[in-house]
């Protein structure tokens, strides 16, 4: 059996970047001590979720290059602990371009790859003084698609928060052979649904079932700008069964993933075999 233990970390962030980095470091150590060689942090883990605030150009100062101090710190930690770590950051690339990114770091401390968020939302919300979550002010869409990274722990794909609402993206990761899909998020829940937690789980379980891979979705917790984040980070098997789920507080959860199950499930169901791309031409509209 090819098995890997996945660890997910959720915590309430503050407006102190250094404090968030220290908190994340301590929780990564806890997950590694629990035996997880693959660990994932939440979206924009070193900062508050600033798109929830009224737009302010000062927030651009939070961005860092991929080889900046945050990833240098996380790379050293991954090397020390011998783990693979997904660290989502606010990335500033060459030429003053800004992305919502997730950096996959290997157990030798080297960067394996970077996924950039593809779907950038601007969402109306009910709020007493302002009414939008405006990521478009801060991030441009990624242009490197949906890479799947081949590692000794399995083939790993990433959907960053809003990307999870697009089944086309989730399917592309399956077509590229993903065994595990990590979903770092900063979610209050989908607007205008009766039960945000139910919608969070249904959508993630559907991706796992339809694409026959493991899903590890991380969500932050806590209160920011009067809005409470949903938490409930979750690990789901290819059969859609919830293996582990956190609550609404700071937490580390772990589960053992039998990656042989991914291949067996795909053979048993035939969903990838029975696809009819010739009938889906309308998806390019």
Query: What value does the average pLDDT take?
Result: 95
Question: How many alpha or pi helices?
Answer: 5
Summing up helix and strand content along with how strands pair, one would put the structural category as: alpha/beta
Beta fraction: 25-35%
Write out the CATH superfamily name: Carbon-nitrogen hydrolase
Measured between the Cα atoms of the first and last residue, the distance is 43 Å
Uncertain residue segments: none
CATH topology term? Nitrilase/N-carbamoyl-D-aminoacid amidohydrolase
Q: Which series of helices and strands comes N to C?
A: EHEHEEEEEEEHEHEEEEEEH
Identify the CATH class: Alpha Beta
State the share of residues found in helices, binned by percent. 10-25%
Radius of gyration, CA atoms, in whole angstroms: 18 Å
Overall number of strands? 16
Main sheet overview: 6 strands, mixed
Bulk shape: globular
The CATH architecture assignment turns out to be 4-Layer Sandwich
How would you write the strand order of the largest sheet?
Answer: 5-4-3-2-1-16
How many domains, as an integer? 1
The oligomeric state is single chain
Description:
- Helix content is 23%, strand content 29%.
- It is an alpha/beta fold and 285 residues long.
- It has one domain (3-284): 4-Layer Sandwich (Nitrilase/N-carbamoyl-D-aminoacid amidohydrolase).
- Strand 2 (38-40), helix 2 and strand 3 (84-93) form a beta-alpha-beta unit.
- The longest helix is centred in the N-terminal third of the chain and has 17 residues, at 17-33.
- The model has no long low-confidence stretch (mean pLDDT 95).
């Amino acid at each position: 059996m090819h098995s890997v233990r996945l660890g997910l970390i959720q915590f309430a962030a503050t407006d102190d970047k250094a404090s968030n980095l220290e908190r994340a470091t301590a929780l990564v150590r806890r997950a590694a001590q629990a035996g997880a060689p693959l660990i994932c942090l939440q979206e924009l883990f070193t900062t508050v979720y600033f798109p929830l605030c009224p737009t302010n150009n000062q927030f651009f100062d939070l961005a860092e290059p991929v080889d900046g101090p945050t990833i240098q710190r996380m790379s050293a930690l991954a090397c020390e602990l011998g783990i693979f770590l997904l660290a989502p950051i606010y990335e500033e690339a060459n030429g003053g371009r800004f992305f919502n990114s997730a950096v996959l770091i290997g157990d030798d401390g080297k960067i394996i790859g970077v996924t950039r968020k593809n779907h950038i939302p601007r969402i109306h919300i009910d709020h007493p003084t302002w009414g939008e979550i405006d990521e478009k002010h801060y991030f441009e869409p990624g242009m490197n698609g949906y890479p799947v990274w081949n590692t000794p722990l399995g083939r790993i794909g990433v959907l960053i928060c809003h990307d999870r609402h697009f089944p086309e993206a989730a399917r592309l990761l399956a077509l590229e052979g993903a065994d595990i899909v990590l979903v770092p998020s900063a979610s209050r829940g989908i607007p205008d649904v009766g039960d945000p937690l139910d919608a969070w789980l249904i959508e993630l379980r559907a991706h796992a079932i339809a694409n026959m891979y493991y899903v590890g979705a991380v969500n932050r917790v806590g209160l920011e700008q009067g809005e409470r984040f949903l938490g409930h980070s979750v690990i789901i098997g290819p059969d859609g069964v919830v293996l582990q789920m956190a609550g609404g507080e700071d937490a580390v959860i772990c589960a053992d993933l039998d990656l042989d199950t991914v291949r067996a499930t795909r053979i048993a169901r035939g969903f990838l075999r029975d696809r009819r791309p010739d009938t889906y031409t309308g998806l390019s509209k």
